[in-house]
Amino acid sequence: MTRPASAPAMADLHRLLDDLVSEVPGTEVAVLLSTDGLPLAASREVNRDAGELVAAAAAGLHALAVVAGSSIHGGTTLRTIVEMEHVLLAIEPAGDSAVLAVAFSGAPDPASVNGPVTAAASQAAKALAAVHAARRANAPDAADPAAPGTKHRAGRHARADDDAFATG
């Protein structure tokens, strides 16, 4: 089976998330998701159920922060931080249609994780743009949904990867 042209870019996303988890102390999981909560990619230790749960929670929490910021004229939501007794969840936009959610154990100081999360979100946005560009370049005529090789998917966003939890 031939792999789609976007496969190398998806591998880059998985590698980026794995690197974040392995290189930043206390990082437990990282999930890249669409703004409506579909998991797009995840770090190695995230199984499907956990990835979908993190994605749904992160999308909802970040959406609440966006609405609250808009309601109180706070401007653009830069990131959403949820501090719990044992975990800190950082959620940051990764481009216009994706969000990066990263969970840290030990509830670190939010200031200590902002830099790595912001850098990873920026890199994820670039890699996701490469995935979309590769798919557009190789897509059959979008006007013909019955064209060979096209699959109809319900929902507003198609997943960037048919299996967001596969690393290769």
From TrEMBL:
Composition bias type Low complexity, residue spans: 136-147
Residue ranges occupied by any Roadblock/LAMTOR2 domain in the UniProt entry: 14-104
UniProt superkingdom: Bacteria
Sequence segments annotated as region (Disordered): 136-168
PANTHER family found in the cross-reference section: SERINE PROTEASE INHIBITOR RV3364C
Name assigned to this protein: Roadblock/LAMTOR2 domain-containing protein
Species for this entry: Dactylosporangium sucinum
